[in-house]
Design goal:
Length: about 190
């Protein structure tokens, strides 16, 4: 829980009473590798903060191929900001790429925190803005780069991740085949 509170305090101030209130609402969730935190077509029922592990965000294209859109690593808040309050089903899968430990809040508890703590929405908006900017920063260069440059950029953006998640996920994220990724990795060693 300490990791979550420290993370939140980077974006706003909370007093001890507010911290205690938030802590009482939190639960720890252990997700084994390949388990889903959230599934496409279902309404998200919880907010999660990733303490340990890697979550991949993926979807299936019109050919039925699984596409990894991005990865979420430690110290990131996960929830569908725009559809959460409206109870609209999400369009992607959030799957544990490694064993994960999360701090989670039910939708009801999250709304109660929001309604109780003055300035909570402003804190969450700052977090959402930061997360969105990170996603764009990590994805945008991939469009115009060759596969080797994309992989090198991936390693720079996600240091250490290449050794933690299956190569098939990384290849999908980079928009290349797994055999191409293996060749690239062999050539840059």
């Amino acid at each position: 829980m300490e990791e979550f509170i420290n993370y939140i305090l980077h974006f706003g101030h909370l007093n001890q009473q507010q911290i205690d209130f938030i802590s009482k609402k939190a639960q720890v969730l252990e997700l084994p590798k390949d388990a889903y935190f959230a599934e496409a077509g279902k309404v998200s029922k919880q907010v999660g903060f990733l303490v340990e592990g890697v979550i991949r965000v993926c979807y299936y294209n019109n050919k039925g191929e699984e596409i990894t859109r991005y990865f979420v690593d430690e110290n990131h808040l996960m929830f569908d900001w725009k559809n959460f309050d409206a109870s609209i089903p999400i369009s992607e899968y959030l799957q544990a790429a490694t064993p994960c430990r999360l701090i989670v809040f039910s939708a009801t508890d999250w709304k109660e925190i929001s309604n109780t703590i003055m300035g909570w929405e402003a804190i969450i908006q700052k977090i959402n803005t930061k997360n969105h900017a990170e996603k764009l920063e990590r994805r945008s260069p991939l469009v115009a780069q060759d596969a080797t440059t994309r992989y090198l950029g991936f390693i720079e953006s996600f240091p250490g991740l290449a050794n933690r998640v299956p190569l098939s996920y990384i290849a999908s994220y980079l928009g290349i085949t797994q055999s191409s990724l293996s060749r690239i990795r062999k050539n840059i060693r």
